[in-house]
Amino acid sequence: MSDFFKSPLSSSSTDSVARKQAIMDQVRNELAQANAQQLMNNMNERCYKACVTKPGDALLSSEQTCLTRCLDRFMETFNIVSRTYVARLAKERSESESTPFT
Fold it and tell me: Full-prediction pTM beyond 0.70?
């Protein structure tokens, strides 16, 4: 009897919201993968240009050391920037939630 009083749109709107959320999650995942791929491409390009002056059949030990250090610095910098950005977003979000509407 309780089903009789339910709105016929409630279950379909719930399905619609769930579908929208699933699509948004999929887009977010694809964007994250694209961003990670772009990061890897930028990192490889920059470090290769900086460290490999005379391309050959194999890397010299000095080139290997340079690449290792360059990649480490690049990732360390990326992690610092990412953490700072996420912290800033969280702070702005909490400030906007705590500010009363006028």
Answer: no
